[in-house]
Amino acid sequence: TVLPFFIFLLPVALVLLCSSTLCSLGCDLSQGLQEDFSLLNQMSTFSLVPCLKDRTNFNFPKEAMEGNQLQREDAKVIVHEMLQQIFTLFSQNAAPATWNQTQLMQLLIGLDQQLEQLERCLAQDVKWEEPSLGSENSKLALKNYFQGINQYLEGKEYSHCAWEVTRVEIRRCFLFIGKLSKKFKD
């Protein structure tokens, strides 16, 4: 009959579909990053004016992650580390109750999906098993950077203004991630 024939063709069709454009988008994070950035912007309607006194320079380690010598695989490892640190920051600390909690949850879900997508993309790269010294140095610089953000929040006792300053800083991170992720688009 016709039904067993279609059952046989289904796996073949899926393999062909996966080898086409759909699966080649596996490393393209642009849409998810735009959605995450948008959610981060919309989570709070609080004016930053009262928080200007709380601004600080978190010393984003831009120099450690730029340059022509940065390889495609290194860029993926760096973006993965940044997304992981952002996810941890927003999931392990009590964000202000005044933030839109639904959007915060959507942001966390989006970050988790991006991390999974990037891990699948990294799994295709042999070098992910043995990251370069450059990407290891960049990961260490990022861990120190995010540790500084956590210390800032703790020092400000997780005040609303401290979170607003942090939210603005993380928006800057997303802009950098977007720029860096262009290095590994196919």
Class by alpha and beta content: mainly alpha
Q: What is the highest CATH level, the class?
A: Mainly Alpha
Helix/strand order, N-terminal first = HHHHHHH
- Report the CATH architecture: Up-down Bundle
Strand content: under 5%
Q: How many distinct folded domains?
A: 1
Number of separate helices = 7
Unreliable runs, pLDDT <50, ≥5 residues?
1-25
Mean pLDDT over the residues: 80
Helix percentage range:
55-70%
Would you mind describing this structure in some detail?
This protein has 186 residues and is mainly α. It has a single domain (28-184), classed as Growth Hormone, Chain: A, CATH 1.20.1250. The chain is 66% helix and 0% strand. It has seven helices and no strands. It has helices spanning 2-18, 21-24, 30-42, 72-92, 101-123, 133-155, 160-181. Helix 4 (72-92) packs parallel to helix 6 (133-155) and helix 4 packs antiparallel against helix 7. The protein starts with a helix and ends in a 5-residue tail after the last helix. Keywords: Antiviral defense, Cytokine, Disulfide bond, Secreted, Signal.
Summarize the SSE layout with pairings:
Elements: H1 2-18, H2 21-24, H3 30-42, H4 72-92, H5 101-123, H6 133-155, H7 160-181
Entry keywords:
186 residues, mainly alpha, Growth Hormone, Chain: A, globular, disordered N terminus, Interferon_alpha/beta/delta, signal, antiviral defense, cytokine receptor binding, disulfide bond
